[in-house]
Specification:
binds zinc ion; mainly alpha
Amino acid sequence: MPDTCVMCGAVIPEGAWVCWACEHDIMEGKPMDETNIELKLNDHEHEIGSLKHRMKAVEENQKALNSLATSVAVVAEKTDAISNKVDSIDSKVSAIEQKPGKRWDGIVDKLLWLVIGAAIAALFAQAGVAV
Ligand SMILES: [Zn+2]
């Protein structure tokens, strides 16, 4: 919202109170329109009240936002901890899954040696060599 002259309501540069025409009138000693000034002051008071109200709402939103940011940080921390635990559990499960495989491999090795031994014994028996 642009700044306006407190005397005539014309748009003026930010930070100024009166336009150059009203400033000229003041310098020339022309009487100020007090009714217009009072209306403008009332407008400004109303606007300041509205701004205070809106600022209060912004402060409440900011508090909620800060609280949310803190909660997000806590959730991120807990997520990291959970992720580490899942990694640990995953490696343990992988180790457990490999155990039956190793056991089975051992059994297959033993059976293979048994079959080879039996075949060799059969070959020796066929050749007439006593084992
Ligand atoms: Zn003016």
